[in-house]
């Protein structure tokens, strides 16, 4: 998604070399990656992966970043054992693949993970962060789940929730100016008059200049000086939103 040299809008981009600081656990019927800070914390963040699944090193890097900032972080397998998308797969089959993995069909798994964080990890406040497929999932749970405190949606597919104005919790939406997968006309749905009239909680929509889909978690910081600025800014904005509301 972040590699401009490839024509596919959901290309893998830069796959980080990152082993992770946490551990894999079984949470009822779900496998998950969990990372805990060295100092006890009662604040947790659920990390919702993109189409490349819960084992993508980039996503675990984001979970570890959250933990480095004081949060318990958990990245569950929201595909629940189904295979993630592989960059070598035929893009002509993508829509059929996606039909069995809709980002609004995660409520059962969210309830299981929230219960685990509360009962096994001592979490009292829980936020959520998602990327691409997971960004759309964040939008969904911000409309539905009363147990969460805040969310950050990174380049989620807005057209999936075109009536999604009644947010329950403070939500930050991150978009990329040069995103071929989510054009700006889709992103512009969010700050329109309907959202301004209906949304009763704090929300923010931010578009990062010159960036492409996946820039927060799939671009190397050293790709070029201009990108580095916005990659770091996006991550900083994500953390600041969670620190403020979770």
Q: What characteristics describe this protein?
A:
246 residues; 19% strand; Rossmann fold; alpha/beta; 8 helices; single chain; 8-stranded mixed sheet; globular; disordered N terminus
Description:
With 246 residues, this protein is of the alpha/beta class. It has helices at residues 57-68, 94-99, 107-120, 133-144, 184-187, 193-198, 215-218, 225-245, and strands spanning 23-27, 30-35, 43-48, 72-76, 125-131, 150-154, 171-176, 203-208. An 8-stranded mixed sheet has the order 1-2-4-3-5-6-7-8. A hairpin with a 2-residue loop joins strand 1 and strand 2. The longest helix is centred in the C-terminal third of the chain and has 21 residues, at 225-245. It is globular, with a radius of gyration of 17 Å. Keywords: Cytoplasm.
Total E-strand runs: 8
Based on the coordinates given, report the CATH architecture: 3-Layer(aba) Sandwich
* Coarse shape: globular
Number of helices: 8
Number of domains: 1
Taking pLDDT < 50 over at least 5 consecutive residues as the criterion, the unreliable ranges are 1-9
């Amino acid at each position: 998604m972040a590699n401009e040299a490839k024509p596919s809008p959901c290309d893998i981009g830069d796959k980080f070399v990152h082993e992770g600081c946490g551990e894999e656990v079984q949470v009822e019927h779900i496998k998950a990656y969990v990372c805990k800070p060295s100092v006890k914390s009662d604040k947790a963040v659920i990390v919702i992966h993109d189409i490349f699944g819960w084992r993508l090193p980039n996503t675990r890097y984001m979970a570890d970043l959250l933990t480095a900032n004081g949060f318990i972080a958990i990245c569950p397998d929201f595909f629940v054992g189904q295979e993630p998308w592989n960059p070598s797969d035929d893009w002509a089959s993508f829509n059929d693949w996606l039909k069995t993995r809709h980002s609004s069909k995660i409520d059962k798994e969210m309830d299981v993970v929230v219960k685990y964080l509360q009962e096994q990890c001592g979490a009292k406040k829980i936020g959520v962060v998602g990327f691409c497929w997971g960004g759309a999932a964040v939008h969904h749970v911000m409309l539905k789940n009363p147990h969460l405190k805040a969310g950050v949606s990174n380049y989620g597919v807005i057209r999936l929730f075109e009536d999604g104005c009644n947010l329950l919790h403070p939500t930050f939406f991150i978009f990329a100016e040069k995103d071929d997968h989510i054009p700006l006309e889709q992103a512009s749905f969010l700050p329109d008059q309907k959202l301004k009239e209906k949304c009763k909680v704090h929300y923010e929509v931010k578009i990062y200049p010159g960036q492409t889909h996946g820039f927060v978690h799939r671009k190397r910081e050293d790709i070029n000086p201009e990108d580095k600025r916005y990659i770091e800014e996006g991550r900083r904005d994500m953390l600041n939103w969670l620190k403020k509301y979770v």
